[in-house]
C-alpha cells in the first residue's frame, strides 16, 4: 500500500479535485442518483468553475481545501470551513470528502478526515457538522467509525438536476465534538 500525503490544495489543483469529485460521485452514488444526472457531470466545466471561484471561496482563511496524494497523483479531496447552519453557531463544517473508488478502504479517507478535523480545530472550531446523502451506507459507516454521530436533522439539497428536472437529495446531518478522543 502506497503512503498517503495530505496537503493544502491550491487553485492549480482545480482539475485534479474535479476529477476526484466527478469520478467518486459516479462510483459512490450510482445506486442513489439518476444515471443521467451522474453522466452529465463534466470534469472540465467543474474545474473551470472551481478555478474561477477559488479566490472568493477562500477569502475566509478557515476555508481550506485539502488533497490526498499517492505517488504524486491526487486521489482524494476534502473541504472544511465555518458552517452556515443557523442552528449551529460557531460550528465548522466538513463540506466534502471524496476518495477515488480504487483507494477505498486503503487509508486515504482516514488520512483526509484526520487532517480535515485538525484544520477545523486550527480554525477555532470545537464542533463540526457534515451531511451524508440518505442511503449512502458506506459513507455513513465511515463517519460513524470516525466519531461523527447523526443528530436527527435532515436537509433537502435542491441544487442538482438534469434536462430541466430538479433532483432533490435527502441528506442527513452528523455532528462531531472535535475535542473528543476516538
Automatic annotation (TrEMBL):
<keyword id="KW-0012">Acyltransferase</keyword>
<dbReference type="GO" id="GO:0016747">
    <property type="term" value="F:acyltransferase activity, transferring groups other than amino-acyl groups"/>
</dbReference>
<feature type="domain" description="N-acetyltransferase">
    <location>
        <begin position="27"/>
        <end position="176"/>
    </location>
</feature>
<protein>
    <submittedName>
        <fullName>Ribosomal protein S18 acetylase RimI</fullName>
    </submittedName>
</protein>
<dbReference type="InterPro" id="IPR000182">
    <property type="entry name" value="GNAT_dom"/>
</dbReference>
<dbReference type="InterPro" id="IPR016181">
    <property type="entry name" value="Acyl_CoA_acyltransferase"/>
</dbReference>
<keyword id="KW-0808">Transferase</keyword>
<dbReference type="Pfam" id="PF00583">
    <property type="entry name" value="Acetyltransf_1"/>
</dbReference>
<dbReference type="GO" id="GO:0005840">
    <property type="term" value="C:ribosome"/>
</dbReference>
<dbReference type="InterPro" id="IPR050832">
    <property type="entry name" value="Bact_Acetyltransf"/>
</dbReference>
<keyword id="KW-0689">Ribosomal protein</keyword>
<keyword id="KW-0687">Ribonucleoprotein</keyword>
Amino acid at each position: 500500500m502506497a503512503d498517503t500525503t495530505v496537503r493544502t490544495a491550491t487553485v492549480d489543483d482545480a482539475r485534479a479535485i474535479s476529477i476526484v469529485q466527478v469520478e467518486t460521485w459516479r462510483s459512490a452514488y450510482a445506486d442513489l442518483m439518476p444515471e443521467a444526472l451522474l453522466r452529465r457531470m463534466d470534469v472540465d466545466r467543474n474545474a473551470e468553475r472551481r478555478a474561477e471561484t477559488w479566490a472568493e471561496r477562500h477569502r475566509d482563511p478557515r476555508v481550506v481545501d485539502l488533497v490526498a496524494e499517492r505517488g504524486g497523483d491526487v486521489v482524494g479531496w476534502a473541504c472544511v470551513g465555518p458552517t452556515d447552519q443557523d442552528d449551529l453557531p460557531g460550528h465548522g463544517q466538513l463540506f466534502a470528502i471524496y476518495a477515488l473508488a480504487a483507494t477505498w478502504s486503503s487509508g486515504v479517507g482516514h488520512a483526509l478526515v484526520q487532517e480535515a478535523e485538525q484544520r477545523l480545530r486550527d480554525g477555532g472550531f470545537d464542533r463540526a457538522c457534515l451531511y451524508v446523502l440518505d442511503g449512502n451506507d458506506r459513507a455513513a459507516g465511515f463517519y460513524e467509525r470516525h466519531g461523527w454521530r447523526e443528530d436527527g436533522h435532515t436537509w433537502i439539497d435542491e441544487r442538482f438536476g438534469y434536462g430541466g428536472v430538479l433532483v432533490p437529495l435527502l441528506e442527513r446531518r452528523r455532528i462531531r465534538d472535535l475535542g473528543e478522543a476516538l
